[in-house]
Every structure is written in C-alpha cells, then in structure tokens.
Amino acid sequence: MLGPGTSLASNPGSLGHPEVCRRPCIYFSVSSCTNGDQCGYCHMQHAQRPAHLDKRQRELMQTLNTGELMAVLLRHLRLKAEEKGFLPLAMDVLAILERHAEAPTARVPMKVQSKLDALLSKMTFAALIGMALRRKDVDPGFVQEMNQALSGLRSLWALES
User: Fold this and answer.
1) What's the predicted TM-score (pTM) here?
2) Which of 12, 37, 96, 151 has the fewest CB atoms lying closer than 10 Å?
3) Residue 104, C-beta contacts closer than 8 angstroms, at least 6 positions apart
4) pLDDT computed for residue 158 by the predictor
5) pLDDT under 50 in the chain at which residues?
6) How many CB atoms are closer than 10 A to CB 115?
C-alpha cells in the first residue's frame, strides 16, 4: 500500500510522493536542481510517465460543465485515496469537491466512458485535482480553497511519514 510514510521528502515539492506531490523537477531528473531543498517540484523517482488525456478525451471533458467534471473527478479521487490508504487525510479535499459537484447529465457512450475511466484511474491524486483547477470557468475562490486543502493534505502526509 502506498500512502503516508512512503516518502521522505527533502523539499516541499516532494511532500506526498507519489500521489499528492508536485510534478517532477526537470532539473533534478537531468542533473541537479540549484533550488535544492527549497524546490517546489518533486525530487523523487516517478515510476512512469504521467497519463494524459488525448484530444477526444479532452473534448469530452470540455462538454461537461464544471459541476459535472467535479463529480467525475470526485469518484476517481475517492477511489484513489481509498485504494492508496490515505482517505482520512484527503477528507477536506474531497469535501470541497463534493460541494461543487453535480450529477453528470451528458450522455457519454459506454466505450468512451470506460476508456476515460481507465485513463483517469492511472492518474495521480494531484493530477486529477489539477484537472479541476485548470478549468477556464472555475471559480477563483474554489482554486484558492482547493490549493489550501491540497497543501494541508501534503502537510498531513509529511506528519504521517
């Protein structure tokens, strides 16, 4: 089980590795990062290249309104946190998404939905949150609240290490 206690982060960007850390530091991966212990990006090994949506999947996600997207992401985030053993630590993040989620009304073909679900299940917790934060129509208050909750989750993760 991956979860709290699996990372011994030496810099802020690595807190919560591998599920809630920041993206990998490109400088650290090629040689060394001049920011060292102050770097805001992850300095730990990532097993694989991050999963990304293809053009069709991005278009599908754009057809969902913000509340529908939050509902789709919430389902995957809850499963991910439960699966990886950090559900109690993630409750604040999940509660924020619950407040903004709406039941999806868009009809998505089952084949497309299953491919999308397979891809979303491969993404990290932080990557899924990033999808919600990068929406053009998302409320700035939501972004601020979610960033604070995600920072809190990373801090809790560090305390559990």
Assistant:
1) 0.85
2) 37
3) 64, 68, 71, 72
4) 81
5) 1-7
6) 15
